[in-house]
Amino acid sequence: MKKLGLSLIVLLVFIVIASSNVSAEEQVVFEHGDRSEKIQEFKLQLVGIGFADWNPPTTYFGNETKENIIEFQKYYDTNRTDGVVDEETLTKIEEEYNT
Q1: Residue 34 carries which DSSP code?
Q2: Which residue(s) pair with 30 in the sheet?
Q3: Measured between alpha carbons, how far is residue 81 from residues 38, 87, 97 in Å?
Q4: Distance, CA of 7 to CA of 99 (rounded, Å)
Q5: Helix or strand or coil: residue 60?
Q6: Cβ atoms of residues 6 and 64 within 8 Å
Q7: pLDDT for residue 27
């Protein structure tokens, strides 16, 4: 039992160290194929700021979502322009929606 506990602690430390070496821009939040209520929320925000016209937006991150995200990322000159939603993109969508 002690070996299992020690192994688990070593694994957790490794995970924390590995994740701390990844910058915020590199951390993928959502990408093509994902499903989430948060996806539906940011899709609604994209509609509100004129980057999409879903009615109603779904929870699925499909091809159209990716294309709209690429358009948004290019317009706002974000670090990513590949249609993957990272923290920077998500924050920018929320900022623009709330202004």
Answers
A1: -
A2: 85
A3: 20, 13, 19
A4: 48
A5: strand
A6: no
A7: 78
- Kindly state the tokens that stand for 55: 């009615």
Whether the link from the prior residue into 57 is cis, omega within 30° of 0, is no
Tell me the C-alpha distance between 43 and 57, whole Å: 6
Q: What is the mean pLDDT of each run of 10 residues along the chain (99 residues)?
A: 55 50 65 96 96 95 97 96 96 95
Amino acid in the structure at residue 10: V
Contacts of 36 (CB under 8 A, 6+ apart): 30, 59, 61
d(CA 52, CA 49): 8
Rounded to 5°, angle at Cα 83 from 99 and 71: 55
